[in-house]
Design goal:
This is Helix-turn-helix domain-containing protein. It comes from Sulfurospirillum diekertiae. There is one protein chain. This protein is an alpha+beta fold. Helix content is about 40%, strand content about 15%. It has 3 helices and 3 strands. Strand 2 and strand 3 form a beta hairpin. It starts with 7 loop residues before the first strand and ends in an 8-residue tail after the last helix.
Amino acid sequence: METFSKRWLSPNELEAEYGFSKSAQAKMRMSVSKCKIPFCKINSKYIRYDRAEIDQWIEKHKIVGSEL
């Protein structure tokens, strides 16, 4: 059993752990708004997400119920 969390997540791993579909990830990567998801592109081919940056990004962009 794995007792640590991987730092870098693939799009499939991000989908499994956070629930963002791969199509939603692509839209958020291409977004021109302030809600652009943080990612890293390796060799112009592989997309990876830093778990800590994703957690911070989610925290920064959350909407509290009274703000709706």
